[in-house]
Amino acid sequence: MSQDQTASDPVYVPVSTTGFGPPSPVPPPPPSSGVAKLIVPVAIGGAVALTLGVYGRLHEPTFVAVNLAGFSGPLAAKAWLTTGAAFFAVVQLVTALAMYGKLGITAPAWSGTVHRWSGRIAFLLAVPVAIHCLYAVGFSTAEPRVLVHSLLGCFFFGAFTVKMLVLTRKGVPGWALPLLGGLVFTGLVGLWLTSSLWFFTNVGVTF
Amino acid sequence: MRYKGPILTLAAGLVVAAVLMVMNLNVTRNRDARAAAAEGAATSAPTATAEPTPPPTTEPPAPPAPPATYAGKVNGGRATVAIATKEGQAIAYLCDGKSVEAWLAGTATNGELLLTGADSASLTGVFGNGKAEGTIKAEGRSWEFTVPVVEPPSGLYRAAENVRNAQFVGGWIVVNGEQVGLGVLGGTVTPVPPVDPAAGTVLIDGIPVSVNPVDGTTR
């Protein structure tokens, strides 16, 4: 890790495009048109987050759902799936920092591939967790940890949707992807802290 | 197309979510069907899956319902309640896993629950059609609940033994692998380790204590 501030702060989010941007020689397009390209992805992502929250609130919890074989229960399965997702999220952070030249090394050619696939794996690990949460438990405000976890869960999938949609658009501002990546990463780490860490400290490190 | 990858990623997540949801609907449909059969529900129409319909106000018929345990979080989620019913008798346990816990005993007849416990704890409510709902009062507070029938190994578990010359009574409510429990050791509420319903033993203060499933007639 370099002495750069970004390396020590995992959720560092640049607010200026000065000296920052994808490793591309193409100059950034005028900001006004670039920001406009974010409107539709952000609107769709917001709709995703809202839909998850409303469904989780309205759907009557069943306390029953399909469970993953090999675990003692759904909580253990979810704790470990989330831990897996969080691991790949760290891979995401490191490869993203490398690609943006923030590690003080030349990013290896395979950084992009590792970044894409670690992200896909993390996302696909998180989906079954979310389905179980939404179907068997629901959006809950019962206690601060659970409320924060519910909000972060909706936020994470909304932010991830925005990130994916923005990836498909050309000419978006250079700060958009690092910002969205940082938000998705922060959301997932928050989810891990409010679920897996709670499980491991309150129930135990069990499978 | 170079930029199709992210869309495929989102689509893959959506497909996984859809498949899991269909499997979940089957799980709850089977459970509701079992619950309806267990209740001997006279209605010809099976209950719809996970619909937040208001409870029917009609009283179920008089013959004693088969044994069933109802368990789940109270409204607001701050505590969990389990009600075991068998042959018109009922045992209930309220527990928040931290400090509040209460055992109650009473009757479950004609679709009505009427239970009492120490320190003027009480539980009143109705049961039938795969769920129980009502009000439970303990330690000067009151909780409302609507909880479904659960199937073993989910249910209510209890331990009552002497541990190092002190009376220990512990209760666990297991709902689909998630559980909450508390114990009273020598008059003091104490946290308890999670119970494995298959093993039926927990260590309290280093001493193995046997944990048994509770039905409505356990006394």
Task: Describe this protein's structure.
The complex is a heterodimer of chains A (207) and B (219). Chain A has helices at residues 5-8, 31-36, 39-58, 74-99, 111-137, 144-167, 176-194, 196-202. By secondary structure, chain A is mostly helical. Residues 1-22 of chain A have low confidence and may be disordered. In chain A, α3 packs antiparallel against α6 (144-167) and α4 packs across α8. Chain B is α+β, with helices and mostly antiparallel strands. Chain B has a domain at 68-213. Chains A and B meet through α4, α5 and α6 of A and α1 of B.
Structure at a glance:
The complex is a heterodimer of chains A (about 210) and B (about 220). Chain A contains eight helices and no strands.
Largest sheet of chain B: 8 strands, antiparallel, barrel
Helix content of chain B: 10-25%
Radius of gyration of chain B: 20 Å
Q: What would the principal axes of the Cα set say about the shape of chain B?
A: globular
Rg of chain A, alpha carbons = 18 Å
Number of strands of chain A: 0
Average pLDDT value of chain B? Answer: 82
The span between the termini of chain A is 33 Å
Residue windows where pLDDT falls under 50 for at least 5 positions of chain B = 41-51
SSE string of chain B, helices as H and strands as E? HEEEEEEEEEEEEEEE
| Tally of helical runs of chain B | 1
Strand content of chain A: under 5%
Largest interface: A-B, 40 and 34 residues
Give the strand content of chain B. Answer: over 45%
Helix content of chain A: 55-70%
Structural class of chain B: alpha+beta
The spatial strand order of the largest sheet of chain B comes to 1-2-3-4-5-6-7-8
What series of H and E elements makes up the topology of chain A? HHHHHHHH
